[in-house]
Design a protein that fits this description.
Pfam families: FUSC_2. Keywords: Membrane, Transmembrane, Transmembrane helix. With 390 residues, the protein is mostly helical. It is built from 14 helices and no strands. It has helices at residues 2-40, 48-58, 64-89, 93-109, 114-130, 137-158, 163-191, 194-227, 235-267, 275-296, 301-320, 324-343, 348-359, 366-375. The protein starts with a helix and ends in a 15-residue tail after the last helix.
């Protein structure tokens, strides 16, 4: 119980550290937005300025420019409709309902996303309930424009986040979940336990969420680096993540196919050579090494070595004789190794060559490989062709 409480406290502290920069950005933007609109421009009650600044910073990372445009448009729609309908209908519960109905309808008609729809509706409500005069609605729109601009200035010039820290923070749980799923699958294969294999598959399905967060963080980092001069020097270290993330997504998909087929192999009581779970375990080690080497910003040499060792072990397993599903598992391991090599910066053709060399196929033509596979004393019902290592 004490350990669980410590874990929860530690997780809460991690979340607090992750949200500290956003909190500081939002506080600074709100204060500056009010100061600029009230003290410098002379607006008496620039309510929408700090609100717009905070909403701009709270928009989904990686899409703040588009979300800010939607925010300003949403404020314009909401204020315009609110002022117009207050003149025509007055104020009251049913009038507010009509205002929101029209605001949402207009926002959806123009194809706006959730920020535009929500901001249109909330702006209409605020105009109807918090203002006593409907004169000069453009001033409230101007407040929102000032706030949105201040928010963008804070996040790109005055206090930009560190894009590398954001990406590393998102990549860490994704790669840890990937590693854990592969290690669990290796254990299930070694023990011949389909239930453990299923647990590994479930773990990797859940990892899709962490990989989605990883991709979102990369989008945010690209945006931040593009618009924040203070973060331009992070481009080099960030390139490893940006270029490697798509290949890791391919590897995750191929590994999930591999694990599903491994479960079929166990259910069908196919022979599983001891090198096969070793190969899967080495693949998991390679993913963990990639996480560590990316975090340190070094060339992922150890990752490549361990990934090729996984390919070599899969070749040994195939050579001793596997069933049909076992052959598919081997093929998917090799393809996943190629994906992982490409995630480390190896070009497609070179990754394919290295995988073939690790398996021992570099000097053998494709036809010879197939004839050898058919001549093995324990052949699969239909020997799989050489996998596409890309």
């Amino acid at each position: 119980m004490i350990s669980g409480a410590r874990d929860r406290i530690g997780a809460a502290a991690t979340r607090a550290r992750a949200g500290l920069m956003l909190a500081v950005q939002a506080g600074l933007a709100a204060g500056l937005a009010w100061y600029v609109a009230h003290d410098l421009i002379g607006r008496p009650v620039p309510f929408f300025a700090p609100v717009a600044a905070v909403i701009t910073l709270g928009s989904s990372v990686g899409q703040r420019m588009r979300r800010t445009a939607e925010l300003v448009l949403g404020v314009a729609v909401g204020i315009g409709l609110g002022d117009g309908l207050v003149i025509l209908l007055g104020t009251g519960p049913w009038q507010i309902g009509v205002m929101v109905l029209f605001a949402v309808l207009v926002a959806t008609t123009v194809g706006g996303g959730a920020p535009l729809i929500v901001q249109s509706a909330s702006s209409a409500v605020l105009v109807a309930t918090l203002t006593t005069s409907t004169g000069q609605p453009w001033t409230r729109f101007f407040d929102a424009l000032v706030g949105g601009g201040i928010g963008l200035a804070v996040m790109t010039v005055l206090l930009p986040i560190n894009p590398l820290s954001v990406v590393r923070r998102a990549a860490d749980p994704a790669l840890r979940a990937f590693t854990a799923g592969l290690h669990e699958a290796a254990l299930g294969l070694s023990d011949g336990d389909p239930d453990v294999i299923q647990a590994a598959l479930t773990r990797l399905r859940s990892a899709e969420g962490t990989f989605a967060a990883f991709r979102t963080a990369i989008d945010a980092a690209r945006e931040n680096v593009a618009f924040a001069p203070a973060r331009w020097r992070a481009r080099g270290a960030l390139a490893q993540y940006v270029e490697g993330a798509p290949q890791l997504t391919y590897a995750l998909r191929n590994v999930r196919v591999m694990i599903r087929r491994a479960q079929v192999a166990l259910n069908d009581r196919e022979r599983v050579p001891e090198m096969l779970p070793a190969s899967v375990r080495h693949l998991g080690d390679a993913v963990e090494l990639l996480r560590m080497e990316w975090s340190r910003g070094v060339e992922p040499v150890a990752t490549r070595e361990r990934a090729l060792r996984a390919a070599a072990e899969s070749g040994r397993a195939y050579g001793t004789g596997v069933g049909y599903s076992g052959g598919v598992v081997v093929a998917q391991i090799r393809t996943s190794v190629a994906d992982l090599l490409r995630a480390t910066g190896v070009e497609y053709a070179e990754a394919t060559r290295q995988v073939r060399a690790a398996v021992g196929w570099q000097a053998r033509p494709l036809g010879a490989r197939r004839r050898t596979a058919r001549a093995r004393p324990v052949p699969p019902p239909s020997a799989p062709p050489e996998p596409d290592a890309g």
